[in-house]
Every structure is written in structure tokens, then in C-alpha cells.
Design goal:
Blueprint (H helix, E strand, L loop, with lengths): L2 E7 L4 E8 L1 H11 L9 H21 L3 E8 L4 E8 L4 E8 L9 H5 L6 E8 L9 E6 L11 H13 L3 E7 L4 E8 L12 H16 L3 H6 L2 H9 L4 E3 L3 E2 L5 E2 L5 H11 L1 H11 L2 E4 L6 E4 L1 H9 L13
Parallel strand pairs: 5-12
Antiparallel strand pairs: 1-2, 1-10, 1-11, 2-9, 3-4, 3-6, 4-5, 6-7, 8-9, 13-14
Bound molecules: zinc ion (ZN).
Length: 321
């Protein structure tokens, strides 16, 4: 079963979390494979998307935010757009659009940044938005400050977290057709070093030690071992304080937030003329959710209602439908 566990270390300014997605990840892949238009993801794309999903759960854990965290990669290679979305209650979903051939050994740079124009965006979309409030969004390129492209998502996100949050972070990610998993340890802001009962230098050394241990975790171990076994293997000599693991209905689980109302809002956003022309062409407007495969159909009567009744939902861009 999919599981998330947060942990701290007694006396050290370090927080961490480990996630292992199994059933939730299988559901994402199963629904994609069932889509007769697209078919299953090529393995390198599935690996990237699984890592994005694991990373999104870990980052959401640390921002403590009531809303969705959306990690998007807009690429200039075979991966045009990849999206992973995690709600505050750990419901999650993901999708990617792929065009052209994908090499069997394609990494992040080859998949999404061969021309150097790939971008990664992290959006925090609050569950309840004050009027006029925009979601927070941070956007970064997929290369380091010297212009060298990142070959792994973990390297790109570590760079992002260091720059945006000013917090040193160590991230290990891995995914295959069965498991999407990740480990994140992060230096906590020092708000009163005295509270930790040691000097700033000791705190610094403590973080460095934990980060070095975390970075020694291999992708194979992350995929094969249960979270408790990973934590034991890495930190058995440390004063680890683990929170109760979250799984089942409290844990990370697949769920799509799409709805007929949201699709209706999107159609309204297209405008009546556009939707009528689709109707003339096909007899009905059919919109399939890219995340879960649900098909929403609007016939002529539905469409007339769409544009006569006042909309209860504002237009929604396709990626959050
Ligand atoms: Zn859906």
C-alpha cells in the first residue's frame, strides 16, 4: 500500500519525509494504458512522471499548505507537458503528453529539455481563494546557474528548493512500472539555535551528516525497500523520531478532482461559437479527462444550457480541469 512517513532528528535542525507509491502509482499507469488514443507511457516517461509524483508529495509535506501543489514540466522534447498534482489530504493524480519517439535511455534533459527551453513550474493553488487571489507559482529552467542541463529531476528540484526557499535539501527519487518513491531531507530554518541545545556549527555539522547519509541511498534501494527499512538502513545510528506512517484513506492515494461542472466551465471559456462548431462537426462535445480517463459528453441541449445559465464556475485552464 502507498505510504508517506515524516521524520525528525532529536536535537538536529533537519526534517525529512519518505514516500512510497505502489497502488496509487499503479492506478495512474493503469488508467493511461487503458486510454486507447494514447496507450501506455514509454518507460522513461513513466519514470519521470512517477518521480514528479513522489517529489510533489514530499514537497507538499514540507510546505504545510491547504490546497494543491502542482508540479509541471513544459518541455521542448518528446515530453510536451507533464503534470503531477497532490492535494493537502494526499489525493494525487498525474498526466503527461508525449509526442514523437522516446529513446529507451532518455533522461530529463533528453525528454524535456533537448533545446534548452524546458521549464519546471511549481504552483500552490489554495483550496479556497480570496477574490482576485492568484495561485503562487515559481518557475525555473531545467539547467543550473552555469547553463548545464539537469539530467535528473532530483537535481533540478534540489536546485529549485535551495534558491526559492534558501533551504539546503537532499532529494533522492526513483520510479519504475510498479513503484514511485522518494526521500527528502531538508535543513530547517534556524530561528533560535539555542533551542537546539548546541552551537550553530554543531547544527550545521548535524545537517551535513544527515544529508550525506541520505545521498548514499541508491535508486534501487529506494524502489525495493519499505520506508521503515530505508530509514533504518540510513539512520540507525541517529536519534530518529518518526511520525506515524500515513497510508490507506489517510495516505497518498489516487483520486481525480475533475467534475462535469469544471468541464462545463472550460467549455464556457472556449466560447459559444467554438463549442457550437464542435457540435456541428461531431454531434456532441466530448471532453476526456487526461488524468483519469473519464469522458464528459455535452449534447446540443446541454450546450444550450451551458450558455444560457449563469456559470457557477469560472473558466478553468485545461491542466486543472
Ligand atoms: Zn479526471
Amino acid at each position: 500500500m502507498s505510504e508517506l512517513q515524516r521524520f525528525l532528528f532529536d536535537g538536529l535542525p533537519v526534517r525529512g519525509a519518505i514516500v512510497r507509491l505502489t497502488d496509487a502509482w499503479a492506478e495512474v499507469l493503469r488508467r493511461r494504458a487503458a486510454n486507447t488514443e494514447t496507450g501506455a507511457y514509454p518507460l522513461p516517461v513513466a519514470q519521470l512522471l512517477g518521480e514528479m509524483l513522489a517529489a510533489s508529495v514530499l514537497m507538499h509535506t514540507h510546505v504545510k499548505f491547504d490546497g494543491a501543489l502542482i508540479l509541471q514540466i513544459a518541455g521542448d522534447g518528446p515530453v510536451r507537458l507533464a503534470v503531477a498534482q497532490v492535494e493537502a489530504d494526499l489525493r494525487l493524480r498525474a498526466t503527461a503528453s508525449v509526442s514523437g519517439a522516446v529513446a529507451a535511455d532518455a533522461d530529463l534533459a533528453a525528454l524535456a529539455n533537448p533545446g534548452g527551453k524546458g521549464r519546471c513550474a511549481i504552483t500552490l493553488d489554495p483550496r479556497t481563494r480570496a477574490q482576485g487571489q492568484q495561485p503562487y507559482q515559481g518557475i525555473v529552467g531545467l539547467a543550473d546557474d552555469g547553463g548545464a542541463p539537469f539530467h535528473t529531476l532530483a537535481a533540478g528540484l534540489q536546485h529549485y528548493m535551495r534558491r526559492s526557499e534558501q533551504l539546503a535539501s537532499t532529494l533522492v527519487l526513483a520510479a519504475d512500472e510498479n513503484v514511485a518513491a522518494g526521500l527528502l531531507v531538508q535543513r530547517m530554518p534556524l530561528t533560535g539555535a539555542g533551542n537546539l541545545g548546541g552551537s550553530v556549527q554543531e547544527a550545521e555539522a548535524g545537517y551535513e551528516r544527515i544529508a550525506t547519509l541520505a545521498a548514499s541511498l541508491t535508486q534501487r534501494e529506494l524502489l525495493e525497500l519499505q520506508p521503515s527499512a530505508v530509514l533504518h538502513r540510513l539512520f540507525w545510528q541517529e536519534k530518529l523520531m518518526g511520525f506515524a506512517p500515513l497510508s490507506g484513506e489517510q495516505g497518498p492515494r489516487f483520486a481525480c478532482t475533475c467534475s462535469r461542472e469544471r468541464v462545463a466551465g472550460m467549455l464556457r471559456g472556449l466560447g459559444q461559437e467554438e463549442v457550437q462548431s464542435i457540435l456541428r462537426e461531431r454531434g456532441e462535445a466530448e471532453v476526456g479527462c487526461e488524468y483519469c480517463g473519464q469522458q464528459y459528453r455535452f449534447d446540443a441541449v446541454d450546450v444550450r444550457q451551458l450558455f444560457t445559465e449563469p456559470g457557477s464556475q469560472p473558466p478553468v485552464p485545461p491542466h486543472v480541469q
